[in-house]
Structure formats: structure tokens, C-alpha cells
Amino acid sequence: MEGTKVARTARRRGIVLKSAREIELIRAAGRVVHRVLTALGEVARPGITTGELNRVAEEVIAAAGGTALFKGVVNPQARCPFPAALCVSVNEEVVHGIPGVRILREGDIVSADCGVRLSGYCGDAATTLPIGSVGRETQRLLDITRRSLELGISEMRPGRMWGEIARKIQRFVESAGLSVVREFVGHGIGRDMHEEPKVPNYVDSKQKNSDFLLQPGMVLAVEPMVNLGRADVEFGDSKHWVVVTKDRKLAAHFEHTVAVTETGAEVLTDGR
């Protein structure tokens, strides 16, 4: 009876719980995403362009029979639909970088965010890659951001409020002297790329009314975005897609699509 009550509460919030079959279909899409990010890690090096990274992503997605989720997405604030399969954000760019002729150089970092639809279901993940050798502080940013995602996933289990986990992520990042981006958060995912609920990586008074209880069947895209400097961001291009840190310090972004299970959580975009 209690489980039925919880499920009804989720439905009222617009949260769609997934069946075991649906979770496996999301995992299949997630495998393609993992394949893309793995391929990018193999080719990302000084001298390659961000457009070449996108070409690799397009080829991998097409070979798998999938569809690029981001391509053609309309943003009311942007002057054009998103033109690529991959968001490629370099250095101070936080998210939504548009691939093109920019050449990656030794010491850069590049955040690659990829979404794929396969057989009607979506997978979404991101990673931030070092280009050649990077400085100590840059590597520390990558390590802390990756570990903040791992921390969040390790804390996920039925019966916990997401806000408890978001608080742990925020404290971990801020205790390292870094900042959590607030304008962009994770999301539910399934048949659509963006579903309820919103999945923030921080807590404040505004988050109380939107907090939610984790329960089996939830599938969430968990994606901390962390800045080396302050948390503030702004648009960084005339097309109003790419978002940059306001102080122009570096940013990193890691993401996995994660299913809540009866006993904990299972990553659906790790290639398994």
C-alpha cells in the first residue's frame, strides 16, 4: 500500500517510473553514448578541431542506428536550433558549446556531452577530457568534478530525498574550494531527453518545494557542472547557446544516466 502511495505521488509530480524492460532500452541507448565518449577520448589531442570531434560522434551514432538527441533542439533564447550531435565546451565554456573550426591546444580541457535516442528511448552522458598535459589545478578540477558525480551515484537508493544527496555533492565540491553551477541541473530521462524531475547538485531555500523521494524505476541524468572560480555563468556567444563562466575560469562537466533500483543505483551509460 505504501509503495502504491509513493508511485501516485511520483505521477502527480509528472515523474514517470520505468519498467525493467524500459530500463534495458535506456541502457541500450546509453551504450551508444558510452561508445561515442570512448571514441572521443581516443582521438582528442592537440591539433584536432571541435568539429572533428562532432564528426566522430555523428559516425558512431549513425553506425548504431541511433539518432542524435541534441541536433535540431530549439532553445527560445537562441537564434538557431542546435546544429550538432555533440555539445563541445572548451575551457571556460560550461555547456552547449557548438562544434566548429576551433583547434584544441595542449593544456585545454574539453567537455563533451552526448545524447542518443535508440528504439524510442534516450541515453545522456558527458565527460571532460584533458588535451595533452594539463596543469595541476586543471587536473584537480577534473578529478573533483568526476568524484562529485561518483559520490552522488554512490548515495542513491530508494527512500532518500534527492536533496540529501545534492547537499553532499555541494559540500564536497565547495570544501575543495570550487563552485557548483546552479543555472543548469540534471533531469529525468526516458522516452524524452528532459523529463521530470529536475536534479540539482546543490541545495537552497528555493529547492525545498521541488525536492523528491528516490524510488525504484526512476531514471535520472545526474550531471554536476563545477567551476574552478565562482559559480556565476553567462552566455558567451551571439547565438545564445554556449554558456561560459562569468570570471572566465575553467569549468568541468561529468554526467551519467542512472536508474534507481530496489537496493541502490545502476549506471546505464558506462558501456555494460
Written overview of the protein:
The structure is a single chain. The chain is globular, with a radius of gyration of 18 Å. The protein is 30% helix and 24% strand. Helix 2 runs antiparallel to helix 3 and helix 4 (136-154) packs antiparallel against helix 5. Strand 11 and strand 12 (243-245) form a beta hairpin. It has helices at residues 2-12, 20-43, 50-63, 136-154, 162-175; strands at residues 67-68, 86-90, 93-95, 109-118, 121-130, 179-180, 186-188, 195-199, 219-222, 225-227, 233-235, 243-245, 251-253, 256-260, 265-267. It is of the alpha+beta class. The chain has one domain: Alpha-Beta Complex (Creatine Amidinohydrolase), CATH 3.90.230.
Helix content: 25-40%
If classified by CATH, what would the architecture be?
Alpha-Beta Complex
Number of strand segments: 15
Radius of gyration: 18 Å
N-to-C series of helices and strands: HHHEEEEEHHEEEEEEEEEE
Helix tally equals 5
CATH class value:
Alpha Beta
Mind summarizing the main beta sheet? 5 strands, antiparallel
Report the span from N to C terminus.
Answer: 34 Å
Blueprint (SSEs and pairs):
Blueprint lengths: L1 H11 L7 H24 L6 H14 L3 E2 L17 E5 L2 E3 L13 E10 L2 E10 L5 H19 L7 H14 L3 E2 L5 E3 L6 E5 L19 E4 L2 E3 L5 E3 L7 E3 L5 E3 L2 E5 L4 E3 L5
Antiparallel strand pairs: 1-4, 2-4, 3-12, 4-5, 6-10, 7-8, 7-9, 9-14, 10-13, 11-12, 14-15
